[in-house]
Amino acid sequence: MPNFLLWIPILFLSFSSTAQINNALEDQLNSISVSTEKVDLIIEWANSNYKKHPDQAFEYLQKSLHLSTKLKYHKGIGLSLMRMGVIEKNKENFTNANKLYSEAIQNFNIISDSLDICSTMLNRGNVYLNQNQFTLAINDFFTCLKYFEKINDQKLLFATYNNIGLVYKNLKNYEKSYYFYSKSLNIALNTKSSSSLYYCYNNLANIFSLQNDYGEALSYYKKNLEILKEESNTYKRAQTYHNIGSCFFEMGNYPIALEYLNQSMELKEKIGNKNLIISTLNSLAHIFYAQNNYQKALEYRKKALALAIKSKNIEYQKDCNEELFKIFTRLHVADSALHYFSEYELLKDSIFNHENLKQIAEIQEKYESEKKETQIALLEKDNKSKMWQRNSLIVFLILLLGYAIFIVRSYYRNKKINRLLQVQNERIEWHKTLLDRKNEDLLDSNKTKNRLFQIISHDLRSPLASVYNIAQLIKIFVQQKKYHLLEESSNDMEECINSVLNLTDNLLSWSLNQSGKLPYNPAIISLKPLLESNLRTYSSVAKQKSIHLQLILEETIFVFADRQMLDTVVRNLINNSLKFTLSGGIIIIGAKQKDDFIEIWIKDSGIGIAEDQISHLFEFDNSQSNLGTQGEKGNGLGLLLCKQFIEQNNGEIWVESTLNIGTTFRVTIPAAENTNEITAILSSDLNSN
């Protein structure tokens, strides 16, 4: 009761404070006669109060939106919608926030208000970033960047650079992320804002940590310590000590890591936030575990678990129980390991536990009900039989209760045994799966090795042998002065060399892709120059076979893909069509947009592909290889590369063919949005790098 009475004046003060704010705003609104000024006042009040009073701010912004719409005051409509979007974003209602931002931009466009358009786009880009829609986010951010650089607004540029850096960090393009974070750092250094510098150093340190360059990350965290000497922010200092300790741990310097983590712990205990304390306790336990000091690791994990239970943080409880299971397993204490493993499993299966408790409660309730009914029945019996019946009932209930306890204990014991057996079975299955996968990998590796040896020994040696023979013929023709035969021989040599170069390019690309060393750098690409370049490359080959090459591309089309990979795909498909097209034939290359994808097709009037070969066309171990119209040999590696590169760029590839009529290869690639403006920005950005 005393605690309840203590809350009454606090609640009263809170309600009275809110009422005073509303009354003051209403008084100001009533004193204004011009409607647009009322709108401006509401928006200004919402800008100052949306964090403390989000619901009231949203309600007043709806009023300003209604009044602005009535007055056709587009500036007021746009600002009301934008601020409402900010409130929805803070509540994590991202769909509503995006809708409000887009409507705000439409109204700012009507009055050509570039600053508010870009400010709203900056907010909308943040929402796209939270939704992992990185392409849409980067489009908005680069549009903002172009305008903010034009007006030289340092504050908005700082925010934009940081957001772009964050997008590239999420895309794991750490080089570009570092570039834009460095841009924001330059602004922070010029403005000498300690909070901005702290934020920039933290971002840069995170980039280096993600790349396992903990020494460089450490240097930035230490710069933050210098900043915090002049700023009394206990939370930032505690987190910085924690980050420095984590870097030293990853670098294997455990004594210094412990020193910084202990300093972080002292500050976090002053703050009193249990979750912050748990994170540092877990880090300390991790260090001792890495040093095989399992007793100290055990001590800190138990403290973390106790705090997690107090704060009712189920996730931390689950993690702590799992780590305690590992520690006791290392210490060979089976009972304790089993206990914490059981707790870990129970936390994962809390719904099941809830049902068990519910069933026990029902048994107890049923028992109480039966007890009352029995007591009523006993009262109706004769006095002589009452004592005997009561004693019999008590004995029966005791036996029933004992039996119930036995059943419950047996149930939990069997459940525990079943879980242990299940864990053992899962481990056995897991090891079996690993062995099966390794066997499959070995078989695949053996097939790949055999196929590569076949390609290198046969497909690579054959054209080189041809080049050697042609070179010998050229000597003979020169000695015999048969110069008219030299042109034909040089054409044959050029064709053999082109075959070798194409094969070596494919082998290099395939090996780099298999080893994971082939870089994947998607960008916005204009499709027409890429296709024209490849047509020029093969124009001489087509001329030799009297094949007509034609490009059908009516409009400017942009795709979002890795240029090198897309270039390799187009090159291989054109080369493939040239091989299997008869003299006097035609090859048509074209592209068109379908929804969010661009479809590229390469159609020839060649000899076609048999239906039974199409299903194996993109397989590496495909041993079937047809000769071209002039005896050209294929090895299937080019088409395998095409499939891998197209799928890596989120597209698809398929083939349509009819024998003696022709073949069409079709590929799809994601289309780019806002391509004209964004391409110019991205190109200038890449050139600056």
Strand order of the largest sheet: 2-4-5-7-6
Low-confidence stretches: 1-18, 675-689
Major sheet: 5 strands, mixed
Name the overall outline.
extended
Annotation, overall tally of beta strands: 7
Class derived from helix and strand content? alpha+beta
Could you characterize the architecture of this molecule?
The chain is α+β, with helices and mostly antiparallel strands and 689 residues long. It is 75% helix and 7% strand. The strands form 2 sheets. It has a 5-stranded mixed sheet with strand order 2-4-5-7-6. Strands 1-3 form a two-stranded antiparallel ribbon. α2 runs antiparallel to α3 and α22 (527-537) packs across α24. 30% of the residues are buried. The model is unreliable at 1-18 and 675-689 (pLDDT under 50).
Please summarize what this structure is:
The chain has 689 residues and is of the alpha+beta class. It is 75% helix and 7% strand.
Task: Give the topology.
Layout: H1 2-30, H2 35-49, H3 54-71, H4 74-90, H5 94-110, H6 114-130, H7 134-151, H8 154-170, H9 174-191, H10 194-210, H11 214-228, H12 234-250, H13 254-271, H14 274-290, H15 294-310, H16 314-330, H17 334-348, H18 350-379, H19 383-459, H20 461-479, H21 486-515, E1 522-526, H22 527-537, H23 539-544, E2 548-552, E3 558-562, H24 563-579, E4 586-594, E5 597-604, H25 611-614, H26 637-648, E6 652-658, E7 662-670, H27 675-688
Parallel strand pairs: 2-4
Antiparallel strand pairs: 1-3, 4-5, 5-7, 6-7
